Amino acid sequence: MVTIKEFPKEEYLLKGHAACAGCGPSIALRLLFKALGNKVIMVVPACCTTVIQGPYPYTSFAVPLQNMLFEATGATCSGIAAALKIRGLEDITVVGWAGDGGTVDIGLQALSGAAERETNFIYICYDNEAYGNTGLQRSGATPYGAWTTTTPTGKKERKKDMPLIMAAHKIPYVATACPSYPVDFVNKLRKAKEIKGTKYIHVLAPCPTGWRYDTSKTVEIGRLAVHTGIWALYEIEYGRFRLNPPSDRLIDKSKRKPVREYLAMQDRFRHLTEADIEKIQQWVDMDWEYYRKLASSECSDLTLHGKI
């Protein structure tokens, strides 16, 4: 376990990148490099990060990076991992880094295939809950009620639960994270690096442009997502489910903040009715009842109990 004082000083996300002010994904990227250093090969499909990294011949990444088609991150990572294995290069980590559109929607088939083949890589979905790079269209990860350019009156469907979809592949490691909790994210990345096989980390990445909040509030928004229970921090390691701090204290509903506090900070939810807010609160409470059962001693192993 590493503390924030032990984070390396080296920076591999360089100054002058093209992220928006207050960009949650860029914070997560910086933490990724703090965790893994520069012995990584990044695979990035069409997403906001293709803008952040900069247009050719310039780059803000001091690591090798392969831009790839929207749907092909998992397949590209599989090829790179196979080439490294043939060459006997075992100290290089292959990282697939994709947004929610390129993960839960367009890239799901290639990611699922890579997981089924037990590809040795880390796949990270940075989830800003919309297609941020192409005009803020809704994705499968856009939450219920959220405004996007293609859901002007609010999305009518619930968000896909991508971490549990990946857990159903019986891969050795699945985790959730948020850059508002940097130590948790860095420790999960370092743990994933030491595990052989497919590792999946789903990162909530607040987006002031798409979520419509002040750019200074990114870290606060991420923390509030966790404290309201909208976003739970957990790991599923070899089938065993475990909540991470501070989520491990939130099974008690009285310790969770009302979801309306999180929703009220974002203009993408300003049209919600009281009935909408109550529906979201009920769904969050139901999710936490499920987490409570998974975290209990008699049901913490999802594989043995047939949950995945």
Just give the CATH class.
Alpha Beta
**Individual helix count:** 11
Please tell me what the overall shape is: globular
Kindly provide the radius of gyration, computed on alpha-carbon positions and rounded to a whole number of angstroms. 18 Å
CATH architecture: 3-Layer(aba) Sandwich
Lateral arrangement of strands in the main beta sheet: 2-1-3-4-6-5-7-8
> How many structural domains can be distinguished in the coordinates?
1
The arrangement of helices and strands along the chain is HEHEHEHHEHEHEHHEEHH
Percent range for helical residues? 25-40%
Q: What structural category do the secondary elements indicate? A: alpha/beta
Features:
single chain; globular; Rossmann fold; 308 residues; alpha/beta
Short description:
The chain is of the alpha/beta class and 308 residues long.
Blueprint of the fold:
Blueprint: H1 24-36, E1 40-44, H2 48-52, E2 65-67, H3 73-87, E3 93-99, H4 101-105, H5 108-116, E4 121-127, H6 162-167, E5 173-177, H7 182-194, E6 198-204, H8 208-211, H9 218-227, E7 234-237, E8 240-243, H10 259-264, H11 274-295
